[in-house]
């Protein structure tokens, strides 16, 4: 059994504006799936076209010259056309492979994705259990979260109602990725090498502009010790000196943030870091220990200075709350 995962090209041609926007994040979903497959003694490769700056125009020449049983392609709404074109190219190169799409867009629009003849299957929602069952030979009709074509119609298997336990997942298969290519957004870090990391799934917000239900309605967290072990792995094996926590809202669970900070402090971990937050999910006490543990930047989504717009998008914050947040982070002890 041989599997190829593809993070599709971000652009179609060599010359494009995206080559000058300096940020690159690992494809965490694919890397976790790859680690799970390797634990089950299944051969897997990852081709990260985004990190390697491979355009669609030259994708074919970069595809491995070997046979694969399954091709897994991730897809977001912004890049769905690139993902489908990637599937078309793979169909020509690997005519006997089963081509599977996963990610946010296929989860919402499985029928649209399956309208592409090159796409055989769609995995909706979290793919850890479903993909492993698929490549292990189980009938697609019995696997939750799978969508497929049958007799000219789209069949959507029932959802997998059991959320994935994040603490059972292995460390992502970073060894299969071009690690020197990854870095946080230009100007957001103090030190290099730096990289993004994920410590939870889900968001407590229900803003209308975001598909916050992709990982379910309940926010799930990795244990601070598990996060710390991944941090140490990245520091020891790849020389990482700074990280950006790309969780939707890193500070949702105050106690877990404090526990992670205490681990970093107790082990004198030489790490600087940043994170995403909301103005209503962190207090002065937590900010103090975050700063002490190496946090130097927090990005918050205020979205608008209009109370009407904030209400319409269901941001569930006020301008007054945002102002008080701004005053808090300017306190002398946090500078």
Give short descriptive properties of this protein.
single chain, 335 residues, alpha/beta, Rossmann fold, TIM Barrel, 2 domains, seven-stranded mixed beta sheet, four-stranded parallel beta sheet, 11 helices, 13 strands, 30% helix
Notes on the structure:
This protein is α/β, with parallel strands linked by helices and 335 residues long. The protein has two domains: 2-156, Rossmann fold, CATH 3.40.50; 183-334, Aldolase class I (TIM Barrel). The protein is 30% helix and 17% strand. The protein is built from eleven helices and 13 strands. The strands form three sheets. Strands 2-1-3-4-5-6-7 form a seven-stranded mixed sheet, with helices on both faces. The mean pLDDT is 92.
Topology:
Blueprint: E1 2-7, H1 28-39, E2 43-48, H2 59-62, E3 70-74, H3 80-93, E4 98-102, H4 104-108, H5 110-114, E5 121-123, H6 128-135, E6 146-150, E7 153-156, E8 194-197, E9 200-201, E10 220-221, H7 224-238, E11 242-245, H8 254-266, E12 272-277, H9 284-292, E13 295-300, H10 307-312, H11 319-329
Parallel strand pairs: 1-2, 1-3, 3-4, 4-5, 8-11, 11-12, 12-13
Antiparallel strand pairs: 5-6, 6-7, 9-10
């Amino acid at each position: 059994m041989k599997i190829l995962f593809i993070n599709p090209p971000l652009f179609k041609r060599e010359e494009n504006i995206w080559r000058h926007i300096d940020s690159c994040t690992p494809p965490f979903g694919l890397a976790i799936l790859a680690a799970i497959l390797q634990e089950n003694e299944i051969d897997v490769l990852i081709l990260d076209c985004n990190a390697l700056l491979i355009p669609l125009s030259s994708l074919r020449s970069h595809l491995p010259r070997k046979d694969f049983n399954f091709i897994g392609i991730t897809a977001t709404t912004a890049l769905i056309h690139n993902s489908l074109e990637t599937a078309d190219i793979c169909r020509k190169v690997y005519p006997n492979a089963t081509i599977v799409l996963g990610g946010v867009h296929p989860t919402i629009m499985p029928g649209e994705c399956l309208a592409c003849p090159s796409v055989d299957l769609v995995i909706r929602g979290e793919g850890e259990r479903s993909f492993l069952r698929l490549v292990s030979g189980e009938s697609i009709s019995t696997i939750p979260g799978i969508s497929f074509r049958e007799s000219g119609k789209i069949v959507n298997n029932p959802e997998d109602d059991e959320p994935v336990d994040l603490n059972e997942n292995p460390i992502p298969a970073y060894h299969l990725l071009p690690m020197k290519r990854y870095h946080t957004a230009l100007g957001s870090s103090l030190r290099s090498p730096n990289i993004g990391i994920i410590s939870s799934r889900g968001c407590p917000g229900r803003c209308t502009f975001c598909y916050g239900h992709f990982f379910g309605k309940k926010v799930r967290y990795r244990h601070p010790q598990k996060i710390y072990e991944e941090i140490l792995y990245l520091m020891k094996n790849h020389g990482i000196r700074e990280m950006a926590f790309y969780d939707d809202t890193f500070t949702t669970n105050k106690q877990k943030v404090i526990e992670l900070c205490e681990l970093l402090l107790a082990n004198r971990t030489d790490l600087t870091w940043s994170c995403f937050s909301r103005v209503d999910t962190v207090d002065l006490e937590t900010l103090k220990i975050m700063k002490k543990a190496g946090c130097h930047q927090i990005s918050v989504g205020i979205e608008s200075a209009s109370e009407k717009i904030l209400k319409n998008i269901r941001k569930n914050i006020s301008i007054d709350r945002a102002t008080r947040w701004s005053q808090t982070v300017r306190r002398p002890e946090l500078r």
